[in-house]
Design goal:
heterodimer, A: two-stranded antiparallel ribbon, B: 2 strands
C-alpha cells in the first residue's frame, strides 16, 4: 500500500505541474491575482519537490511508454529545482503576462520530465516536441530584437530537427512495429533502414541536448532569452533528452549507431571547449561550457558500468554550474544588450561574494577541484580508461584544457583587472539584479562545493539507486 | 570516511581548510586586527602540526598518521593518506611558514580577509599534497594548490602580475593534463597486470610495470615535477611570478609549494617507475647539473633582489634534482637540501619583504644597510645568503656536499658542472652581500629603519634552524630520512648482477 502511495505521488508530479499551469493561465485573466502568481508558482514547485521521492521499483505510465526509474527521478528533481530557481528569480521581474509566462514554463517543464521518462521512441519524440513549443514563446517574451531572433532561430532549427526525428521514426516503424525500447532490444541487429532511422533520431536529439555542432545554435538562443528562462533551458531542459539517447546507445554494441555517440561526444567536448574559450560574452561562454559538459555526458556512455554512475553524478553538477553562470550574466546585460567580457573587469571588488560564487560555478563547469564538476569529470575519464576507450579519454582531456583556459580568462577579468570606463556609446547602464538571483548564485555555489566535498555520499546514493 | 576523520593529517588539513573558509567570510575593516587574528590562528595550526610531528617522531601512534579509507566504495576507489619523515618535516614547515607569511604582510598592500583565506587554503592543499599516498588524492591536492596561488598572485601581486599569472596558470594547466594522462596510463597498466584499479602508491609500485612502459610514463610525468621544481627550461614561471608576488606569498611558494615536486618524485617517480629512472638518469643528471650552473649564473647577473632570489632558488632546486638523479641509491642529501632550502626561503623572503616595505625598491644597487647602522638586518641577511650559498656550518652545506660527493662517483662530469654552479651561487650571494652591506651608499639609496623586535622574534627560530641543520646534520637528517622506497637501488643492483 505504501509503495502504491509512493508511486502515485511520484507519477503525479508532471501532471500536477500541468494542472497548475492551467490554473495560472486562468489566474492571469483575473487582475487582482496577477501579482500573486509568482508566489503561487513557487509554492507549487516546492509542493511538487516535497512529494518527489526515489521509486523503490520502476513505475510504468501510459501503458509502459514512460517508465520512472531512479535515473528518471534524479533528472526530475533537477528539473524541479531548476524550475523553482527560475520561478524564484522571475517573481520580482516585471512580467507583462505572468499567467502565460508561468503556464508556458510549467508546461515545458512537465513535458520535458515526461520526455526524460520515455521508454518508447515515439513517446520521447512527442514529449520533447511538446516541451519545445512553449520555449519558442518564452525565449522571445521580452519582445526585443535579439529575443525574437533567438526564438526564430530556435523554431527554425527545432522544426528542422523535428523533421529528422519524424523521418527516423518512420524508418524505424517500417522495420520494427514496436518502438518500445524493451521490444527494440529483442529484435537483434536492425537492418539498414532501421539503422538509418536510429541515426536520424539520435542526430535530431543531439540538437535538443545542445550537443555540438548544431547544439551551438543555443549560443544565440540563450543569449536572446531572458535570464531565468535561459537558466532553466540550460540547466534542466536540455538534460531531459539524455535518458532517451542513453537507451538508444544501450541497444547497440557495435555499428554506426554505437559509433555515432562517441563521435558526437568528442565533437561536443572539443567544440564546446573552444566555443567557451573564444566566447565574447558570459552567456556564450556558459553555452560553450554547457556543450562541453553535455559532451562529457555522452562520453560517459562509452565508459564501463561506473560510467553510468559518473554520468548521473555529473548531471546536477553541470546543471548547477551552468545555471549559476546564466544567473550571473544578469549583472552584465540590460534588457537584451550583453556587455563584452571587458565589462566584467573589477567586478570582484564591487561584489566579492557574488564573484566568488560565480567563480565556484565556473571552476565546477571547467572541472577544477574541489567542486562537483572535478569529481564528475575525473570519474567519467576514469570510466573511459576502464573500458579501454583511450582516444575518447584523450579527447575529453583536450576539451577539459580549453574549458580550464576559458575559466582562467574569465577569472582574470573578474578578479585581476581594474574596472575601466567603457567608451562613449558602448557603455551599458548597470542592470538591476534581483536579490533572488544573488541568493540563487550563492546557494548554487554552496551546493557545488558540498557536492564535491561529499561526493562519496552522493556516489553511494546513486549506486544504491541504480 | 570515519577512518579519515580519525587521521591526524586529515584533521590538520581540515583545520587549515576550515580557517580558510572562516576567513573568507570574516570581513573586518580593521586590517591590523584581521592580521592579528590570522597570525594567532596560524600559530594554533603550527602548534597542532608540531604536536603531530612530535608524536610521529616518537613513533607511539603510527595509526593516526596512516589511513586507507574507502572512497566511493561502489567504484572501488580508496583514499590513502600517510606520512614519511620527509613529508612530516615539510608539513611542519608548511605550518611554520604561515605565521611568518602573515607577519610579512604590509598594510599598504590592501590585503583583506580573502588574502588570508587564500593563504590558509594554500597551506591546506600543501599539507594534503605531502600526506597523499595515492595517485588520485595527490592529483587532487596538486590541482587544489594551484588555485590559491593563482588568486594570491593575480589579485595582490605587483604591477606586471597579469603576464606572470597567465604564464603560470597556462603552463600548469597543460602540464596537469600530462599528469592526468600519466595517472590514467599507470592505472590502466595496473589493471592489466593485477586486475584491480588501485591507485595507491604501494600497490602500483608492486604491480611490475614493464621497462618500456615505465620509461614512457617517466617521460610523461617527469616534466610535471620538473615544472613544479622550477628546473631549467621550465623555470620561467617561477622567476616571473616571484618578481611580481608579495614576499608573504613567496615564502610559501619557495618554502613548500615547490618542494612538493620533490615529494612527488620521492613518492611516485622513484618507487613506481624505477626502470625509467635508471634509463634516463644519466641524461637528466647532466641536464640538472647544467640547469643548476646556468640558473646560478642568472642569479649572479640579476639586478633586483627578488629576481636574484628567484634564480637562486630555482638553481638550488635544480641541485636537488641533480642529487636525486645522480645518486638515486642515496636520496638523503637531496632531501636534506630540500628542507634547508625551504628554511632559507622563509628567512630570505621574509627579509626581502621587510626590506621592500621599508625601501620601496628591491634593486640591489639602490639597497644599502651597513652593519654599523643596521646590525640585526645585515647579520640575518648575511647568514641566510651564506646558508643558501653553501657555507659550512650552515643549513645547505651538508646537502650540497653530500650531493656533489656522491655525484663524483656516479656522474663525475656532471659533478664538475655542479661544482661550477656552487661557485656561481657563492659569487652571486657574495656580490649581493657586498653591494648591500659593504658597498658605497649611492644617491638613490634610502635610509631604512632596523627590523622590529617582533620581526626578529618571528624569524629567529628559522635562523637557529639554519645553524642547527648545518652543525648537526646527522641528527637533523634522522628527522627526515627514509620514507622513500629503495626500488631504484634494488633495480640498480639487479642490473649489476
Amino acid at each position: 500500500m505504501e509503495s502504491v502511495k509512493l508511486a502515485s505521488a511520484i507519477a503525479a508530479c508532471p501532471f500536477f505541474l500541468i494542472a497548475v499551469s492551467v490554473i495560472f493561465l486562468i489566474m492571469g485573466k483575473i487582475k487582482f491575482l496577477r501579482s500573486a502568481e509568482g508566489y503561487a508558482a513557487f509554492l507549487a514547485v516546492l509542493t511538487a519537490l516535497f512529494f518527489m521521492r526515489f521509486p523503490t521499483e520502476n513505475i510504468h505510465l501510459f501503458d509502459g511508454m514512460a517508465v520512472i526509474s531512479g535515473m528518471t527521478a534524479w533528472i526530475w528533481i533537477i528539473v524541479l529545482v531548476s524550475l523553482a530557481g527560475s520561478v524564484f528569480v522571475s517573481i520580482v521581474r516585471q512580467l507583462q503576462h505572468p499567467g502565460s509566462y508561468y503556464f508556458l514554463l510549467f508546461f515545458s517543464a512537465a513535458s520535458a520530465m515526461l520526455a526524460a521518462a520515455a521508454d518508447n521512441l515515439f513517446f520521447a519524440f512527442a514529449a520533447s516536441e511538446v516541451s519545445i513549443i512553449p520555449l519558442y514563446f518564452l525565449v522571445s517574451c521580452r519582445r526585443g530584437k535579439q529575443g525574437l531572433h533567438a526564438a526564430y532561430k530556435l523554431s527554425v532549427f527545432g522544426s528542422f530537427f523535428s523533421a529528422f526525428s519524424m523521418l527516423g521514426l518512420a524508418f524505424l516503424n517500417y522495420s520494427c512495429p514496436s518502438l518500445y525500447f524493451s521490444a527494440l532490444s529483442k529484435t537483434g541487429l536492425p537492418d539498414g533502414l532501421a539503422v538509418m532511422g536510429f541515426l536520424l533520431y539520435a542526430f535530431s536529439f543531439s540538437f535538443k541536448i545542445a550537443a555540438a555542432p548544431f547544439g551551438l545554435v543555443y549560443r544565440d538562443v540563450l543569449s536572446g532569452a531572458p535570464g531565468p528562462v535561459a537558466a532553466f533551458i540550460a540547466s534542466s531542459w536540455v538534460l531531459c533528452g539524455l535518458p532517451a539517447l542513453y537507451k538508444i546507445y544501450s541497444l547497440f554494441y557495435s555499428g554506426p549507431v554505437h559509433d555515432f555517440f562517441p563521435a558526437m561526444a568528442v565533437l561536443s567536448v572539443i567544440a564546446g571547449g573552444i566555443s567557451a574559450f573564444y566566447g565574447r560574452s558570459l552567456k556564450r561562454i556558459a553555452v560553450g561550457l554547457l556543450s562541453a559538459g553535455i559532451g562529457f555526458c555522452l562520453l560517459a556512455f562509452s565508459g564501463d558500468k561506473s560510467g553510468l554512475i559518473a554520468l548521473i553524478y555529473h548531471l546536477p553538477a553541470l546543471a548547477a554550474s551552468v545555471a549559476g553562470l546564466f544567473l550571473f550574466s544578469f549583472y552584465f546585460e540590460k534588457e537584451e544588450i550583453s556587455l563584452p567580457l571587458s565589462g566584467l573587469a573589477g567586478f570582484a571588488a564591487r561584489k566579492p561574494v557574488i564573484a566568488v560564487s560565480a567563480t565556484v560555478c565556473l571552476f565546477s563547469a571547467a572541472g577544477l577541484p574541489p567542486f562537483g564538476g572535478f569529481f564528475a569529470k575525473f570519474l567519467i575519464l576514469f570510466s573511459l580508461i576502464k573500458s579501454e576507450s583511450f582516444f575518447l579519454a584523450a579527447a575529453g582531456m583536450i576539451g577539459l584544457a580549453f574549458s580550464v583556459l576559458c575559466c582562467f580568462k574569465l577569472v582574470s577579468v573578474l578578479f585581476f583587472r581594474q574596472e575601466q570606463p567603457l567608451p562613449e556609446g558602448k557603455a551599458v547602464p548597470r542592470a538591476y539584479v534581483p536579490l533572488a538571483a544573488d541568493l540563487c548564485i550563492i546557494i548554487l555555489a554552496i551546493f557545488l562545493a558540498a557536492y564535491g566535498i561529499f561526493s562519496n555520499y552522493f556516489i553511494g546514493k546513486i549506486s544504491a539507486m541504480l | 570516511m570515519m577512518a579519515l576523520a580519525d587521521n591526524f593529517l586529515f584533521s590538520l588539513f581540515s583545520l587549515s581548510a576550515l580557517f580558510g573558509i572562516i576567513f573568507l567570510f570574516l570581513n573586518l575593516k580593521n586590517r591590523l586586527l584581521l592580521q592579528k587574528i590570522a597570525f594567532y590562528v596560524s600559530v594554533v595550526i603550527f602548534i597542532t602540526a608540531l604536536t603531530a610531528f612530535c608524536l610521529f617522531a616518537a613513533g607511539n601512534h603510527p595509526s593516526i598518521f596512516a589511513v586507507s579509507a574507502k572512497w566511493m566504495s561502489s567504484l572501488n576507489m580508496v583514499i590513502c593518506l600517510g606520512a614519511d619523515k620527509f613529508s612530516m618535516s615539510m608539513i611542519l614547515l608548511a605550518a611554520a611558514f604561515l605565521p611568518v607569511s602573515i607577519i610579512t604582510v604590509s598594510h599598504a598592500q590592501r590585503t583583506g580577509n580573502a588574502f588570508y583565506s587564500c593563504l590558509f587554503f594554500l597551506q591546506a592543499a600543501v599539507i594534503g599534497l605531502f600526506s597523499s599516498e595515492d595517485l588520485f588524492s595527490f592529483f587532487f591536492f596538486w590541482q587544489l594548490s594551484i588555485l590559491p596561488v593563482l588568486f594570491l598572485s593575480g589579485i595582490w601581486g605587483k604591477q606586471g602580475r597579469a603576464a606572470a599569472v597567465e604564464k603560470f596558470f597556462i603552463v600548469y594547466s597543460v602540464f596537469s593534463l600530462l599528469f592526468l594522462l600519466g595517472i590514467f596510463g599507470i592505472a590502466e597498466n595496473m589493471h592489466y597486470l593485477t586486475g584491480n584499479w588501485s591507485l595507491v602508491f604501494k600497490d602500483v609500485a608492486k604491480a611490475g610495470i614493464s621497462s618500456s612502459q615505465q620509461i614512457f610514463y617517466f617521460i610523461l610525468l617527469m616534466p610535471v615535477f620538473m615544472l613544479r621544481l622550477a628546473a631549467f627550461p621550465l623555470h620561467t614561471w617561477f622567476c616571473s611570478l616571484v618578481k611580481e608576488n608579495q614576499p608573504a606569498v613567496n615564502i610559501f611558494l619557495a618554502g613548500t609549494f615547490i618542494p612538493a615536486g620533490a615529494a612527488g618524485l620521492v613518492k611516485i617517480i622513484f618507487p613506481i617507475l624505477p626502470k625509467g629512472v635508471l634509463f634516463l638518469s644519466p641524461y637528466l643528471s647532466f641536464l640538472f647539473a647544467l640547469s643548476f650552473a646556468y640558473l646560478a649564473l642568472m642569479a649572479w647577473a640579476a639586478k633586483s633582489f627578488s629576481g636574484m632570489l628567484a634564480y637562486l632558488f630555482s638553481a638550488q632546486f635544480s641541485l636537488v634534482l641533480f642529487g636525486l638523479f645522480s645518486s638515486y641509491s642515496n636520496k638523503m642529501p637531496a632531501l636534506f637540501l630540500t628542507v634547508a632550502i625551504s628554511v632559507s626561503a622563509a628567512v630570505l623572503f621574509f627579509l626581502s619583504g621587510a626590506i621592500e616595505n621599508r625601501a620601496k625598491t628591491d634593486i640591489i644597487a639602490d639597497l644599502h644597510f651597513p652593519f654599523k647602522g643596521m646590525p640585526r638586518t645585515s647579520s640575518l641577511l648575511l647568514i641566510a645568503l651564506l646558508s643558501i650559498a653553501g657555507l659550512p656550518c650552515l643549513a645547505s652545506f651538508p646537502g650540497i656536499y653530500g650531493i656533489i660527493r656522491n655525484a663524483f662517483s656516479s656522474a663525475p662530469f656532471s659533478a664538475i658542472i655542479a661544482v661550477a654552479g656552487v661557485f656561481f651561487s657563492f659569487a652571486c650571494c657574495f656580490r649581493a652581500a657586498q653591494e648591500m652591506l659593504f658597498g658605497k651608499k649611492t644617491s638613490a639609496a634610502i635610509a631604512m629603519p632596523e627590523l622590529k623586535k617582533q620581526e626578529i622574534l618571528v624569524i629567529l627560530p628559522f635562523v637557529i634552524i639554519l645553524f642547527f641543520l648545518g652543525i648537526m646534520p646527522n641528527f637533523s637528517a634522522g628527522c627526515f630520512a627514509g620514507g622513500s622506497t629503495d626500488s631504484v637501488s634494488r633495480e640498480a643492483l639487479n642490473g649489476k648482477r
